[in-house]
Amino acid sequence: MRRRLQANAGALTNYEVLEFLRGRGATSDPMGCLGAVTPSECKVYDWLVQTAACNQTKESIDEFLNKAEKFKLAKAEKLNIINLRPSNLAIIDPIIEYGEKRLAKDEAKGIDEVQELVGLVLEVLPPPPPRPEDEMQGQEEMPTEKPLEED
Amino acid sequence: MFYLSLIEHNLHLPPHLLNRPLVDAIKDELERLYLDKVITNLGLCISVYDIRSLEGGFIYPGEGSSTYKVVFRLLIFRPFIGEVICAKLKASDATGLHLTLGFFSDIHVPVHLLPKESEMGEDGIWVWKHEFGDLAMDLDEEVNVRVTKINYPSIPVEQDANAQPFAPMQIIGEIYGDGLGLISWWAD
């Protein structure tokens, strides 16, 4: 009845999946996407929208891939970096396998390739949208009104 | 974490769909069959990406539906082993942490893959006691977890009345290591 011809016909970045769902008509509004996409696709869209993929563009991803050529990362590592957008050394550490051996770090000569890679990520890939909790905290800090002075 | 898979399927198109444009009817039928379902060793089917080829349309004797051989690509959710995912902490108990991605909720971090000096408090919240202080793994926090294994348990024949709903695809992850765990631990 069913045969799988190619179990892995290509990996997609979160950005490409987001573009695909947007092209089908998914929006953040739950009522708006009833006709075009199924509720399960809507859930995937809602999750993707709050990751770093939301602000990415094809150009920024291409630029990142070109500039990251010199680090000789595996395809899976590049995909992971694009999806997760690690913003500091600690977070990029679990993504790169055997980072100490593959990426040079020589303090005497001032070479630190991992730091360069993080810098490249911060520069080329846009940051994820702010979390709703951060926005609410900003609103709570509104200045209190001065009490009206009475004659 | 998303892949495309090329699938060939012999599809029966029921007669009541024959008045619709062919490609739409086939797409709807494929979505009905595949969407939101887990295929063992392949992953969770999110969407029908495109239809590559369509053949057939014969009606076999004794049937009312026409049979098409469809070759199409499915968008599958299946993180690779070693991928780092950012998920939300949904529940915490004696077996470990349970994380969710909104559309997929069966990510489990068992106790032996938590940071080394972790202890569970009375309310079920795990706390990482390391040399510079205690860090609690509170609920609803964003967590970076590295995928170690994906299990596809077979459908149980019997289940307790109040057991967890059966999870056809279970991702086992670890938060043991630099950069993993709550992202607030590693924020600048």
From TrEMBL, chain A:
Keyword Transcription belongs to the record = yes
**Which InterPro entries does this chain map to?**
HRDC-like_sf, RNA_pol_Rpb4/RPC9_core, Rpb4/RPC9, Rpb4/RPC9_sf, RPC9
| Major place of residence | nucleus
GO terms for MF: nucleotide binding
One biological process GO term for this chain? transcription initiation at RNA polymerase III promoter
**Which Gene3D superfamilies did the record assign?**
1.20.1250.40
Annotated localization: Nucleus
Region entry Disordered, spans: 125-151
Ranges for domain RNA polymerase Rpb4/RPC9 core? 4-128
Task: State a single Pfam family of this protein.
Answer: RNA_pol_Rpb4
Q: Which UniProt keywords apply?
A: DNA-directed RNA polymerase, Nucleus, Transcription
Record keyword Nuclease present: no
* GO cellular component terms given for this protein: RNA polymerase III complex
Q: Which family does it belong to?
A: Belongs to the eukaryotic RPC9 RNA polymerase subunit family.
Q: Please identify the protein, giving its name as recorded.
A: DNA-directed RNA polymerase III subunit RPC9
